[in-house]
UniProtKB/TrEMBL annotation:
This is Tn3 transposase DDE domain-containing protein. Residues 20-75 form the Tn3 transposase DDE domain. One of its GO terms (molecular function) is transposase activity. GO terms for biological process: DNA transposition. It comes from the Bacteria.
Length: 102
């Protein structure tokens, strides 16, 4: 039909819905990148404190927009109280210790 537009159950036009969905995905992507960058900085700081030589030039090649830590499909169950108990005084989860430090 000429001139007709698809709307969802709330009466929103498809283009409005699509732009809102794209905006939400942008916010999500930016959040993941910010979170990953913060934890990279913590990990590099810990490695440097342990005496590891990590040149700044090397860090320019690290890309924080990877997605291995994102579950795009399915659901996960989170014990919120247990996760909150793990946070440090800045509200961050601790880095996972590895045997390669030091």
């Amino acid at each position: 039909m000429a001139g007709s537009r698809w709307t969802d159950s709330a009466g929103c036009a498809a283009d409005t819905w699509s732009s809102e969905q794209a905006w939400c995905l942008t916010v999500l992507t930016n959040s993941v990148i910010t979170w990953t960058t913060e934890y990279y900085a913590m990990a590099v700081g810990r490695l440097r404190a342990a005496g590891r030589d990590i040149p700044n030039e090397l860090l320019t090649h690290i890309w924080p927009a990877h997605s291995e830590n994102v579950n795009f499909f399915g659901t996960i169950t989170v014990d919120i109280e247990a996760e909150l108990a793990k946070l440090d005084e800045y509200g961050r989860r601790p880095l996972r210790p590895t045997a390669t430090l030091g």
